[in-house]
Amino acid sequence: MHMNEFTQILLLFFSTVLVNNFILVQFLGICPFLGVSKQVGTAFSMGMATTFVMTLTAAATWLINTFILEALNLPFLQYVSFIIVIASLVQFVEMFIKKTSPVLYKALGIYLPLITTNCAILGLALQIPLNNYGFIASVVFGFGAGVGFTLAIVLMAGLRENLEFGDVPSALKGVPITLIIAGLMAMAFMGFSGMISV
Amino acid sequence: MKQLIADFKNGLWQENPIIKLVIGMCPTLAVTNTAINGLAMGLATSFVLISSEIVISLIKKLIPNNVRIPSYILIIASFVTFTDYFMKAFVPDIASSLSLFIPLIVVNCLILGRQEAFASKNPVHRSIADAVGMGLGFTWVLVALSIVRELLGMGSVFGIQLLGSWYQPMIIMILPAGAFISLGILIGIMNVISSREG
User: How many domains are there within chain B?
Assistant: First the structure.
């Protein structure tokens, strides 16, 4: 690969992870971010499973969009076909994890099938045609989005584990305090915004 | 009739999707930077919710139990595609500022959740009452949150300048960090109100 292209890909990766973080900057995937961020271990497994699905989704939806939807001029089928692809991929990942690691399968529980309705996945699939990425860029974008998701959810889980010992006003317990912490994290991530411009 | 009113009122406060059930968080945070965006998003989501609840409660007996979730998602995705094309044609400015979050109505847990919890078990007239109540419950929180954010962040409401030139706008309120923090505080206030009630 040409050197310049390689730098471009690297920049795309880091800007997806830090500057345009899916959770803290683009508000995609808030439900698992609030729901599965109580313990670092589970948050990390969730992040890994989501990263896996995101990378596969990026590749699969790029192929379908380029060779079927654009080739046959069927843009109005985009939402319907992408959601079917995502649902089948999640089903596939679920069967794969169940076969290879029953322990992880148990730990993820209900959150595994719920990856289908994680808006970060569909959001990712829809952003690829908007940004006109090529195949490799799409896969890197998907992987970067997953890594950014994992980073945010693991950081949040670490903070929430410590929060257990804090004295939180009863009205703010649970969701409200989590949202306020997320706001502070989002402010911290704003510091990355002029770092890379793609 | 009493039953219908109870179904309708359920979504407004008691089981309000955002405040009490904490679902549908991504659009709640992402599009509430101006009051007009919040209102448009609330109405678009309500339309999809009402039409899919009607269709699903009409054909619930025809859908085999094993494939009900994929069938619901396909019905929802079709209504979302319709809404998206409609908004692009008639209100292009709003459609472009909501951008990705219109197609992402497909994976809004609120919509799928109501199909599974209500429309698949109840007759059409009750489903309509439930959908209208839930839709309005979603919309009012979105509008309330976006009015606060727009007022503090830009000194205006629905684009009309309310605060004079003496007011120094808090830009943070219309950025991601402000979204998290103001929703956290809003849910906190609602918790105080409902603990006084009970």
Answer: 1
